[in-house]
Amino acid sequence: MKAADLVVETWSALDANRGRSFLTVLGIVIGISAVIAMTALIGGINRALVGELGLSQAQLVYINIFTGKPTTYEDVDKMARGLTDYEYMVAASMGSADASTEKKKANASIQGVKPLYFKAMGTKFVQGRAFTDAEEGKGSMVVIIDKNSVKTMFGDADAEVVGRNISMGNNSYTIVGVTESTSIMMAGEDLINAFLPFSTMATRITGNQEVSQIMGFAREGSNMDSVVNKTKEYIAAMYNIPADQREDNMYVYSMQSMIDQVNSTMGAFSLLMTVVAGVSLLVGGIGIMNMMLTNVTERIREIGLRKALGARRSDITKPFMLESVCLCLLGGLLGVIFGYLGAFALTGLGASAILGEGSSMTVTPVIDLGTVLLATSICVIIGVVFGWYPARRAARLDPVESLHYQ
Is the pTM value of this prediction over 0.70? Predict the structure, then answer.
């Protein structure tokens, strides 16, 4: 049988049973849609987490010490000298104060930092600049806020605020920069995030030189697990922390470990959805087999006539196999389209469920070409596997009995 004749015959058979064909491929459509939609959604959330939470800073290590003894920048400098695996170390002091402008009052969550902090954290500025070393050294009355805070205090997130003043506590500060907002920053109608030079923070807000959190940026190519373990050993020796009290008195973790945790969580979601989609595909495959068996039954006399005229088994098998594969490919194509559309429809719902209500994180579905190709391959395999038995059964029919079939 010529290829052109085979295609025409297959199309005629499918066209003659449009309704049955459509209902048969629904299982395939649902399964593929689920795979594409959830894979795209999970990929989008994973990318958003990596971007928004700064997880791309894989060389960053967070250090918190809870010994009851104040930690100062002198201690941080000592750690930086003793821990040679770090390119540099920075720290932040934490505080809060009432903030106000001419139009709005709010509560400010304030961090006192040195200029190197913004480099370590990979902070992106949408307006203005970071502090200078000179401003930090002399305790200048300057402040940096994030974009959400601009909206809270000035009514418009895109308002030009560099050079304008904001009061915090008993002092007025000049805004020199605006950073992008991330989901790890507090946000709300009565909450803002602000950065002050460390020396200004110590003088005007906290009244001391203590730091609340230390961040180390490991050298490129460092083994992060080894860096974390060495850091724990050094801090334990520096503060004389007994081995059985380390878990209570310090907390050291790397961004790489968080990346691994996020990937593991998203991988679990992907596996779960793959299993669910696999069940749907199995059901769809059984539906296709059932339809093909019905087609064979309806066309027994036609099959008998063809065999009586000299048709070989392969001539009988090929049309049925091609019908099955075409049904699966049609289901796969529709599944990819609906899965892609479904991923966008589920973006808001999925982000809210996983990231929490009110998150400023933007999630864009990520369509992986490999996933699409895998889904297409699965459709072809299903068509071959579930179409083989009906096609084989048709080819093995006895022509005499087939011609007498009513």
Answer: no
